[in-house]
Amino acid sequence: MIPFQYNPDTVTRTLQAQGAGGAGEDRLEALRLKGPPRETWRFDVELDAADQLEPVAGAAPMAGAGLFGALSALETAVYPTSAQLVEENRMASNGMLEITPVEAPLLVLVLGRRRVLPVRITDLTVTEEAYDGELNPIRAKAGLSVRTLTVDDVGHSHKAGALYLRYQQSKEQFAALIGYGPTTVGYTRI
Q1: Are 145 and 44 contacting, i.e. CB atoms less than 8 angstroms apart?
Q2: Cα 50 to Cα 32, 53, 64, 75, 166, distances in angstroms
Q3: Rounded mean pLDDT of 136-147?
Q4: Exposure on the CB side of residue 63, measured as CA atoms within 13 A
Q5: What is the Cα–Cα distance from 130 to 53, expressed in whole angstroms?
Q6: pLDDT in tens, 3-23
Q7: Is 1 exposed, middle or buried (0-12, 13-18, 19+ CB in 10 A)?
Q8: How many of the other CB atoms lie within 10 Å of CB of 7?
Q9: % of the chain residues with pLDDT over 70
Q10: Cα distances (Å, whole numbers) of residue 1 to 57, 72, 109, 169
Q11: CA gap 25, 36 in Å, rounded
């Protein structure tokens, strides 16, 4: 769990339709969709440990760690664990190959109660902007790019697939509330 201290100022989403045909697509396939779109999200997360510098009654002291814990949690979401790396090395030393890598923990992006979706971090940029006396970062900005995991990526039986379906169904329900849906274009129902 990595709670954001502040709401992002801007969230950029990109949806890339998954058409049935490729280049030189047949006219009969032009309106067919082979699966959910590839959806990517881009936003900046601002982190500030200034509140942690002042001792709070009843709270455990951060021992001068600044934002190291929050930044480490974000960063380790894009690595295999050290235990996995050690095990891969052990297996390689014994002449064994890993056929299927170990599954990473499921990351869930929560942007309000209507947008709860499974994601994979595709890009993470951290800019540390201020430090305490021990060079622990106390103010930072993390630029995140994530891709929504769909049922095409994980299947229908995986918990990420179920989360994705709820996310898509929520969109469909809200579109229907204002008269839009899969058979409408602009303001005219076809």
Answers
A1: no
A2: 52, 5, 11, 21, 37
A3: 95
A4: 3
A5: 13
A6: 788 889 999 999 998 876 666
A7: exposed
A8: 11
A9: 82
A10: 24, 12, 10, 25
A11: 18
